[in-house]
Amino acid sequence: NAGVTQTPKFRILKIGQSMTLQCTQDMNHNYMYWYRQDPGMGLKLIYYSVGAGITDKGEVPNGYNVSRSTTEDFPLRLELAAPSQTSVYFCASSWGTGRSYGYTFGSGTRLTVV
Amino acid sequence: QKEVEQDPGPLSVPEGAIVSLNCTYSNSAFQYFMWYRQYSRKGPELLMYTYSSGNKEDGRFTAQVDKSSKYISLFIRDSQPSDSATYLCAMRIQTGANNLFFGTGTRLTVIP
User: Fold this and answer.
1) Of A2, B21, B57, B67, which shows the fewest CB atoms inside 10 Å?
2) DSSP A17-82
3) pLDDT (tens digit per residue) in A62-79
C-alpha cells in the first residue's frame, strides 16, 4: 500500500541542467497535482491533471512541464534549472475535488539548484 | 493581501496542554476548510475536514469555522510529543482542482 511515491528524494542541479521528478500513485486516483513548498510561502500549485491525457497550469507553472500518459504517473519536468527553482516539491493525488476528498501527498523531493 | 494568513510560530507547549492553531482568510466565498499535519521531511496528511461554519470533533482534535469572522481554528486537547509537527490550514471555494489555498503553516513542538 505505497500511496504516492516520489523519486528522487534529494537532488542537486547546476544552473541550466534539466531533470524529471517522478510521481506514481497506486490508488487509482483521477486527480494528480504538483506543488512546491518554500519556507514561509506555503504550498503553491504548479500543475495539475484531472485524468490521463489532461493537464493544466496552476499558480506557478513557469519553468516546468508535465505529462500524464497513464492514471498512475505524473512526472514533472524542469528545463533549464534556475536558483529560483530551489524548493521542496510535493506530488499529490485525490479521487476528485468534492468536499470530502482529501489529498494524499508523497514524501517530497528536495531540489537545490546551484 | 494573501488569501489565507497563518501565524508561522513556532509554538512550544508542555505535554498535556491545549493547543489552539488559527487561520484567517479574506475571501468570503471559501466554503470547505481543511487542516493538514506535516511531520518533518514528510508530505502533508489530511487531519480534519469541515464544510461551512461550525465545529467538528475527532478524538483530541476539534476544528472550528467562524465564517462571519473569516477565522478557522484547530484545537488539540491533551497534546502529546507525537503532535509535534507543522499544521497547515487549507480552504477552497467549491469543487475544482486548482482552487485549494494553503496557509503557510504553524510549527508546533510539544515538550515532554
Assistant:
1) A2
2) --EEEEEEESS--SEEEEEEEETTTEEEEEEEEEETTEEEE-S--TTEEE--SSSSB--EEE-S--
3) 999 999 999 999 999 999
